[in-house]
Amino acid sequence: MEFEKIIKLVECVSASGLTSFQYESGGEKIILECKNQDNRMTPVGSTVVSNMPLWDLQAKGQTLQSQPVVPSREDDESGNIVKSPLVGTFYSASSEEADDFVSVGDHVKKGQILAIVEAMKLMNEIESDFEGEVAEIYVKNHEAVEYGQPLFRIV
């Protein structure tokens, strides 16, 4: 099964409130299990900065376990949170050689580009909805991000 289809499946199961889901087709088997109360799941191998639980993926008889998840501090801090509008890969700059769009301490204006999230080979610019100073960046370059995941705190 293609990675994009697996992500879509995870999103649908997470949104449904199910605590367990199994899918088997053509010799591939996927098992999704929620490990906590809020029924959200984290993709295998992602380093997501959020409060999402871990889940197991069993594909072709092999079990993979995701990395430990670091809780988000979005509720602990004041300011405005810029969240990811989609699932994808976070990029802090337009290319490997370019400087980051913003750093902690930078003053940003409403509409200014903060980062890029790549989804299905499309580069989506993440613009600030707020004017202020970048107080915190919750994600690292090249990390997988989920829909609604906090990316920046602007004060």
UniProtKB/TrEMBL annotation:
Coiled-coil annotated residue ranges, if any: none
Superkingdom classification of source: Bacteria
GO biological process, one term: fatty acid biosynthetic process
Species of provenance: Blautia liquoris
One GO cellular component term noted in the UniProt record for this chain: acetyl-CoA carboxylase complex
UniProt keyword annotations, A-Z: Biotin, Fatty acid biosynthesis, Fatty acid metabolism, Lipid biosynthesis, Lipid metabolism
Role this protein plays: This protein is a component of the acetyl coenzyme A carboxylase complex; first, biotin carboxylase catalyzes the carboxylation of the carrier protein and then the transcarboxylase transfers the carboxyl group to form malonyl-CoA.
Protein name stated in the entry: Biotin carboxyl carrier protein of acetyl-CoA carboxylase
A Gene Ontology molecular function term of the record: acetyl-CoA carboxylase activity
InterPro entries: AcCoA_biotinCC, Biotin_BS, Biotin_Carboxyl_Carrier/Decarb, Biotin_lipoyl, Single_hybrid_motif
CDD domains per the UniProt record, alphabetical: biotinyl_domain (cd06850)
Domain Lipoyl-binding: 79-155
Pathway noted in the entry: Lipid metabolism; fatty acid biosynthesis
TM region positions: none
